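hey so i finally got around to running the thing on that chain from the lab meeting. sorry it took forever, my laptop kept dying and i had to restart like 3 times. anyway pasting the input first so we r on the same page abt which one it is
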Amino acid sequence: MITTRARETIIDEPPFPAVAPVLVVGCGNLLRGDDAVGPLLVRHLWERGVPDHVELVDGGTAGMDVAFKMRGREKVVIVDAAISGSAPGTLFRVPGEELAELPPLDGINQHAFRWDHALAVGRWLLKDDYPRDVVVFLVEAGSTEPGADLTPAVAAGLERAIEQVLAEVAR
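ok and heres what got predicted. didnt touch it at all, straight out
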């Protein structure tokens, strides 16, 4: 049984723990060559250090976790590999408003849940706790062979992405 005093304490607590206002998430699979660019970016930033207002997360391939990590943030920066047919290492910056309708929520399943699904579910689920500013950086992959290292072109793209992400979180 909860006493009135206990209920008052619960009501006075924030709805969720305080979080850093900026979240940087690296998505991808460390075991599949250039697909590792997102998690590797997070590792490089961790080693270099980021401002106190930034939290780094290796999102790996766990898209649903990314959706929940966005809760209460002012800004979210996502980094992942892309396969669009562009030259390997090409860096794309995609503002969140361009992703507002992608992908539809219909047909999402746990086994094929990506960062774009995390954004869609996050908008639907988090409502007012969804970040007001979302930016996605994509690095064109050259090879996603299991066990491969980053290709030289994507390693160079990773360095450019690091500089862009650092500039983005400083804004």
